[in-house]
Amino acid sequence: MFPIQVAIASILFASLIALTHFYLNHQRSNRLPFIPYLFSGLVIVQLYAFI
């Protein structure tokens, strides 16, 4: 659906956002699915490509 560069960049940003969230949250017992992070990473990459 997206070029490979967009997919890799989205996963990179999603991972950074997820790590930051878990580092700042300090509650290790709560688990969130990775899909919201993937979506936010994709939005960041698409907005960057739009500008």
Detail the poorly predicted runs.
none
Q: How would you describe the shape?
A: elongated
Biggest sheet statistics: none
**Can you give the helix content as a percent range?**
over 70%
Helix-strand category: mainly alpha
Strand content: under 5%
Order of helices and strands: HH
| Beginning-to-end CA distance, first to last residue | 21 Å
> Nearest-angstrom radius of gyration?
12 Å
Number of helices: 2
Q: How many E-type strands?
A: 0
Report the average pLDDT across residues.
88
How do the helices and strands line up, and which of them pair or pack?
Blueprint: H1 4-25, H2 35-50
Written description of the protein model:
With 51 residues, this protein is mainly alpha-helical. The chain has a domain of 25 residues. It has 2 helices and no strands. Helix 1 packs across helix 2. It is elongated, with a radius of gyration of 12 Å. The protein starts with a helix and ends with a helix.
Q: Could you write a compact summary of the structure shown?
A:
The protein is an all-alpha fold and 51 residues long.
Keywords:
mainly alpha, 2 helices
